[in-house]
Automatic annotation (TrEMBL):
GO terms for molecular function: ATP binding; pantothenate kinase activity. It holds the Pfam family Fumble. Belongs to the type II pantothenate kinase family. SUPFAM superfamilies: Actin-like ATPase domain (SSF53067). The keyword Lipoprotein does not apply. It catalyses: (R)-pantothenate + ATP = (R)-4'-phosphopantothenate + ADP + H(+). It comes from the Eukaryota. It comes from Eptatretus burgeri (Inshore hagfish). This is Pantothenate kinase 3. Keywords: ATP-binding, Coenzyme A biosynthesis, Cytoplasm, Kinase, Membrane, Nucleotide-binding, Transferase, Transmembrane, Transmembrane helix. Pathway: Cofactor biosynthesis; coenzyme A biosynthesis; CoA from (R)-pantothenate: step 1/5. Homodimer.
């Protein structure tokens, strides 16, 4: 077994919060860790508190005991986490990069087959995708250095995934998988019957919050993962700024998946679900499929990128001939989503790209309005609030003297909103 890394190792760069392997956040919302196979009493993966490395006052016996304990309590590979959503399944796979020659020699064929299959492909069948741009490199989990891979596929393809797990003999390596999301309940019997696996279910909102804080603590390949938009109301000056979450509370967390949940978070362990809306990423995709004939989320986003929503939506200037100065409404404000579509002549001139863009604007404007009202209701309006001003350009509702509302995770913003559910729920 390779010795634990010392202070100069990449593993000592960040403090990893306890239980973080139980969630992988805005990026995946998912969980990390697997139950051991029969006869192995190794507990589910759990990260140690604090820095991984030597203490400030050298204590070699203590370090040796800690390293030995970590090795004994570390579950066998492979390490997976699943977030089974209503539209997409997000899978986190940790690929160790510090495998010793001894470990490689002892590696069983089924484990080698799984690792090779997942890391040597970027597409799995016709619908599975490994998002290379989302992988987290030089990441330390439970004292092992490696790469975290993000894989997704439609929830409708779950039977194929289970068949692959059966064919790769995954149950010979582990008897259970850690999973979150509604599908962890919906497909529990399918995992047992088709793949001989049980699911260790974890609450998705607990995982969401812990995952967000974890991603913020380790960063994304050396860069900040969480950001806000400065000068959001000015298209020419709008730009991203890193968001410091070292002391973020209270914060409003808007989780956009198939539907939307809005959480008021007061500490890592103290939060409540304020409200939600059924108009989310699933609504965007469903309407785009109906209106444009597209067949996938990616296709819907490509259409929206090249569309002009003003050909579909009725704006304030279409009603007033300009701005509505009394209430400070610019002429570019949407007065009626899809308002032009009541006109037969307008309908005959419309393009699929315009319909996709208008659908995206409709969904994101609705989420932004609800989130802002929740923020005002939960914490009050004023500069004393510690929530930052700013929002995504497609979730834009400029703040009124105090603050607007906050979207905190980059993967969340781009995956659900501007690519329109998470770069695993939007990047």
């Amino acid at each position: 077994m390779q010795p634990e890394p010392g202070p100069s190792s990449p593993c000592s760069r960040a403090s990893l919060p306890n239980g973080v392997c139980h969630c992988l956040g805005q990026r995946l919302q998912g969980t990390m860790g697997c139950e051991p196979a029969e006869g192995d009493d190794t507990p589910v993966t759990e990260l140690v508190d604090g820095e991984v490395g030597a203490p400030s006052q050298p204590d070699r016996p203590h370090i040796a005991r800690k390293q030995d304990s970590l090795r004994k309590n570390r579950p066998a590979f492979p390490w997976f986490g699943l977030d089974i959503g209503g539209t997409l399944v997000k899978l986190a796979y940790f690929e160790p990069k510090d495998i010793t020659a001894e470990e490689e020699e002892e590696e069983v064929e089924s484990l080698r087959s799984i690792r090779h299959y997942l890391t040597s492909n970027v597409a799995y069948g016709s619908t599975g995708v490994r998002d290379v741009h989302l992988e987290m490199r030089d990441l330390c989990l439970s004292g092992r250095l490696g790469t975290l891979h993000c894989i997704r596929f439609p929830t409708a393809d779950m039977p194929r995934f289970l068949a692959m797990g059966r064919d790769k003999r995954f149950s010979s390596l582990h008897t259970a998988l850690c999973a979150t999301g509604g599908g962890a309940y919906k497909f529990e019997q399918d995992f047992r019957q088709m793949a001989d696996l049980k699911l260790r279910k974890l609450d998705e909102l607990d995982c969401l919050i812990r995952g967000l804080l974890y991603i913020e603590s380790v960063g994304f390949n050396g860069a900040a993962e969480c950001y806000y938009f400065a000068d959001a109301s000015d298209p020419e000056c709008c730009h991203k700024e890193p968001c410091n979450l070292s002391d973020p509370y209270p914060l409003l967390l808007v989780n956009i998946g198939s539907g939307v949940s809005i959480l008021a978070v007061y500490s890592p362990d103290n939060y409540k679900r304020v409200t939600g809306t059924s108009l989310g990423g699933g609504t965007f995709l469903g309407l785009c499929c109906l209106l444009t004939g597209c067949d996938s989320f990616e296709e819907a986003l490509r259409l929206a990128e090249h569309g002009d929503s003003t050909r579909v939506d009725k704006l304030v200037r279409d009603i007033y001939g300009g701005d509505y100065d009394r209430f400070g409404l610019p002429g570019s404000t949407v007065a009626s989503s899809f308002g032009h579509m009541m006109c037969k002549e307008r309908r005959s001139e419309i393009r699929p790209e315009d319909l996709a863009r208008a659908t995206l604007i409709t969904i994101t404007n609705n989420i932004g309005s609800i989130a802002r009202m929740c923020a005002l209701n939960e914490t009050g309006c004023g500069t004393s609030s510690r929530m930052r001003q700013g929002s995504s350009p497609l979730l834009r509702e400029p703040p009124d003297g105090g603050w607007g509302w906050m979207v905190v995770a980059a993967c969340f913003v781009l995956m659900v909103c501007t690519r329109a559910v998470t770069r695993c729920e939007a990047r």
